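Support request from a user on the community tier.

User writes: "When I paste my structure tokens into the form, the page sometimes reloads and wipes my input. The last time it worked, I copied everything first. Here is what I submitted, just in case something in the input itself triggers the reload:"
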């Protein structure tokens, strides 16, 4: 399940290290702003409209079908003649890539309650490893064979994900029958009546906006003098970032023992530190150290926030994940767009300031969430 989650989520980020290559190929400078933004908005749309189906349909079949739909969308992207078609394909790729988030709540169903955090951490390790290593793959392949080759290569990988999940997952049907309309209405009710969910989602949206701000601009930053590095070098940063991924299972176990709130605050603080490193130490060494700290902070906060929301309503796992992840990826899309704007107007200094301010807001929200959580426990007692 960890491998399949990584195979699915990787598709959202193939474009980031090769934006410069895509700009040159399509002769359109708007690619660097529009393609990552449209991909993440597609992902947010898929989370909102497709992810709730996990509480309605047989989960294994749904996962297999989404992987196959992803393969078709990737072929569409590979054959896109221009920016408009590629933007539409990017939305579809993003929407179908939410198959990774169909797998995560299924993990919590199969895991023992006392080991839920560790199970989420293990699967999220695979998911984030896929995200980070996708940049490595895309950077190397695009520098050798062009950006279209990356999408042609990703399509059979998505088919392999469908085959893998069909072979290893158990069939699982929801315990209660529910219509799609009622399913979508219940999303609004959950959002209104669960302040902890709203704060967790807003916190992660700010952190993911900061995370996306860095990865959207990295290839453009590396191409600048004195670094003068290409797409392959940007992709290699994905390998560097996997150092932070190793912390996901540890974060899950910490959340099981001590509760998620302190781990979320630690993640936000780590991301603030990462941007301080980026700003104060802007050479290659500073970028390497900063990206390890940034990915560490993002990952431990994400695992802990998911641990928190899944405990609210165990029977609504897919819907809770829908609201949480949709909010998070809207934040990521905004972060990508704002970082492209900051880069074009103020350069790396503007991106650094933007990236640092976002986790400060997340830290404030996480500290407030700790007070809400204590109040909730006291009222339940």
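"...and here is what came back when it finally went through:"
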């Amino acid at each position: 399940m960890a491998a399949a989650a990584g195979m699915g989520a990787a598709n959202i980020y193939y474009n980031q290290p090769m934006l410069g290559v895509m700009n040159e190929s399509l002769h359109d400078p708007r690619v660097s702003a529009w393609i990552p933004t449209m991909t993440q908005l597609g992902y947010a749309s898929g989370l909102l409209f497709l992810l709730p189906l996990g509480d309605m349909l047989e989960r294994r079949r749904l996962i297999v079908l989404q992987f196959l739909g992803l393969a078709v969308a990737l072929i569409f992207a590979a054959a896109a003649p221009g920016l408009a078609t590629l933007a539409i394909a990017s939305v579809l790729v993003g929407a179908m890539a939410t198959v990774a988030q169909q797998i995560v709540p299924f993990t919590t169903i199969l895991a023992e309650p006392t080991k839920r955090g560790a199970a989420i951490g293990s699967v999220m390790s695979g998911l984030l490893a896929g995200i980070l290593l996708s940049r490595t793959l895309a950077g190397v392949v695009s520098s050798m064979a062009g950006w279209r080759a990356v999408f042609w290569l990703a399509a059979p990988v998505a088919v392999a994900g469908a085959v893998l999940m069909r072979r290893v997952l158990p069939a699982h049907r929801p315990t209660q029958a529910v219509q799609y309309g009622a399913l979508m209405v219940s999303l609004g009710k959950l959002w209104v009546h669960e302040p902890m969910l709203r704060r967790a989602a807003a916190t992660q949206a700010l952190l993911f906006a900061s995370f996306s701000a860095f990865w959207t601009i990295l290839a453009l930053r590396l191409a600048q003098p004195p670094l003068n590095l290409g797409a392959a070098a940007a992709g290699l940063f994905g390998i560097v970032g996997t150092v932070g991924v190793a912390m996901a299972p540890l974060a899950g176990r910490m959340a099981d023992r001590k509760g998620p709130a302190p781990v979320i605050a630690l993640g936000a603080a780590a991301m603030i530190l990462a941007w301080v490193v980026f700003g104060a130490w802007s050479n290659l060494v500073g970028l390497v150290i900063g990206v390890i700290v940034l990915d560490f902070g993002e990952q431990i906060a994400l695992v802990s926030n998911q641990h928190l929301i899944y405990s609210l309503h165990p029977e609504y796992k897919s819907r809770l994940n829908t609201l949480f992840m949709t909010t998070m990826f809207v934040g990521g899309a905004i972060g990508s767009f704002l970082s492209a704007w900051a880069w074009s107007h103020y350069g790396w200094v503007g991106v650094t300031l933007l990236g640092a301010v976002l986790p400060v807001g997340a830290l404030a929200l996480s500290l407030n969430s700790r007070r809400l959580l204590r109040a909730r426990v006291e009222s339940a007692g």
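Agent notes: The reload is a front-end session timeout and is unrelated to the input. The mean pLDDT is 87. Residues 6 and 127 are 4 Å apart (CA to CA). Escalated to web team.
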